[in-house]
Fold this protein.
Amino acid sequence: MSEKKIRVLIAKPGLDGHDRGAKVVARALRDAGFEVIYTGLRQTPEQIVEAAVSEDVDAVGLSLLSGAHNYLFPRVIELLREQDANGILVFGGGVIPEEDIPGLKQAGVAEVFTPGTPTSETVDFLRAHCGGGE
Amino acid sequence: MNGKTQWESELVAKALAKSPERRSSFETTSGIPVERLYTPEDYTGSYEDQLGYPGQYPFTRGIQPTMYRGRFWTMRQYAGFATAEESNKRYRYLLDQGQTGLSIAFDLPTQIGYDSDDPMAHGEVGKVGVAIDSLADMEILFQGIPLDKVSSSMTINAPAAVLLAFYIAAAEKQGVPASALKGTIQNDILKEYAARGTYIFPPAPSMRLITNIFEFCSQNVPKWNTISISGYHIREAGSTAAQEIAFTLADGIAYVEAALEAGMDVDDFAGRLSFFFNAHNNLLEEVAKYRAARRLWAKIMKERFHAKKDRSMMLRFHTQTGGSTLTAQQPDNNIVRVAIQTLAAVLGGTQSLHTNSRDEALALPTEDSVRIALRTQQIVAYESGVADTIDPLAGSYYVERMTDELQAAAEEYIAKIDEMGGAVKAVEQGYIQREIAESSYQYQRQVESGDQIVVGVNKFTIEEPPVKGLMHIDASVAENQIKKLQAMKAGRDNVLVRQRLDALRTAAEGDSNLMPLILDCARVYCTEGEICGELRKVFGEYRPMEVL
């Protein structure tokens, strides 16, 4: 029986050009059997949500190292809700101070992976929360 | 049987039989094998040809005849955040603490040619650097800092011409002529496409702006370093040390070729080219890296471009310790990493150095953290003794062998890039991006498999509470900056502004040097967003090819 592959959009919101982490996570997810789409740099929240909806993804991973996460992450979630796409799980990573994480989770970010997190942890998290095989 | 073979077959074999080595083979981050022992057999090059003397071709041992015995490297901490007022305070603090040059960090909207009130700037104003919208902000940024005394390095690339124009105009206001200004603009667009991401325009008009700056500065700002060809970000994005040398020098070749095509003489601009490298933890590989880069660039300038002046062949470089080597876990450990990296840069003969702060994997650094980072340089300078003789690791069988190997590895990459038609083509085809991404992924796999130990991350971990007292940029920074910008726009001569912007756009459609026109715009307080906006109309924007 073939299971439906989990589809993930890895996105770089805002103006930040640090994409090492985003690319590493994207490749690790692909190697773990996910279908991965990478947006490239400098995406507005509107562009990310449009891509997430049209690509029918299960999850969106937002990567940001510029410090603009407190605005950009919640904005993506807000726009997903406007599109009735709240089913899409949003997770994040990058240089995110510990003290900002509760606020981001409150806004609807499912998990935040900070520097040093093994990619296997992200893989396990998505497998557990994206209902793979449904 | 020679001594080494005998030693291997007897002593070593006996030791290995008793207990094996830590791993079956050792290699550097660049995948270069590291042998158990290096001996005179491993270094067979001619001393005079390959090493020579400091200040002389091929500059392997350094670019100045006395190096740090004359003067230490410039201690230059990269700083900037929030508004011009706040950053001005931090610069004055750093100068008071004994720093000897400034290094300006701009926020992302400034780096990508957007004003603070642009919708694209939302959430980013003042975050990773200072927000500069016009000459008015630049005047505040350097208030009380005499621009004829201090040298300033500006990390600005796609809009480098605009920020340089603001700087020249701010100096004019202080009564300092452009000819007296000392400093550097990064102005290296190729590595933005390949690794750092703050591009605006496509390659052809970007290369034009760069050569316009070379030409303008050679006549008007002769002490200015017109470009800082950067391997730093290539390494941060995940490349190896060998790739860092290769891709940086390949970019350098592309800039020299562009300037020659624009009709300049190599010795008129090559002496103002400068470089920027990373310093990672593999101390001896890093030292070898700087020495190899110096020797290879000298050879390229002499043999490929027929430079005649010594100065044109000298690879002068700034170093920053490796941001990606910092860990969010047990952040005080980063102080030790930075100290090792500082030694690498100094033993490698850097001209200036930024040392990272322990908390930078978490946020922008606090003032306390920045002071420790600066003190690290001062301890190496004043207490370690390594700066008292030139290139002290020369003649180490291992370091010389590694220098040769890194040079050979870099030359191989450069030959490949030459075959593709040069660095611009290699970037457009995604080759450099792919190579970097591949190395970065391999490294991540090594860390996750435990093959590469990162202390505090995948070994020697502890439970620790979240770090307190991190630097935080308040949302009010953006609001205030936008208010200031709007007040400035209301108070300037908007008819004149329109005229200057129209003149710039017309010139951009032709092929004249744009630098004088950008300077005219700067003087009447055109904003950065307006100036880049006119250029966007003519040049369009770069659309990257995404490589995974």
